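Async update (no meeting this week)

Hi team, since we skipped the sync, here's where things stand on the single-chain job. The sequence we agreed to prioritize is pasted below, unchanged from the tracker. I ran it this morning and attached the output directly underneath so nobody has to dig for it. Comments welcome in thread, and please keep replies under the output.
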Amino acid sequence: MKLACVALFVLCAGPTAWASAQVLTNPSRVEFTCPDHALDDGHEIGFFLAGATEPVQTALLGDPPEVAGLVTAPIDVRPLPVGSYTAQVRANAGVEVSAWSEPSNPFGRGLAAPPGVVVR
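Output:
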């Protein structure tokens, strides 16, 4: 069985996530197409530095439903070091694992503002 995920990525973040060069920073979800979605058990996302062939980190996405041709899953980039990345997804079905998809649009992992400060 050959599984595939296609690299139609949309990395999404909150309203303050766009930098002046229009590079998304600290995305919170990923969207992609997966032609074998009915056959797979789940998906894995890999975070890649520019030009790298192996991810610096991976995370399991589970098997979120496909809606209107897109699979959408939450992601957390906070464990990544600050820097520039692309994402790739692959499908899993039992012990079978697809190849990595094509890279996503570039995104950044930036420093997040502290959620709140109390002076006492």
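Quick observations from my side:
DSSP finds no helices and ten strands in the chain.
Residues 78 and 109 are 7 Å apart (CA to CA).
Reply here if anything looks off.
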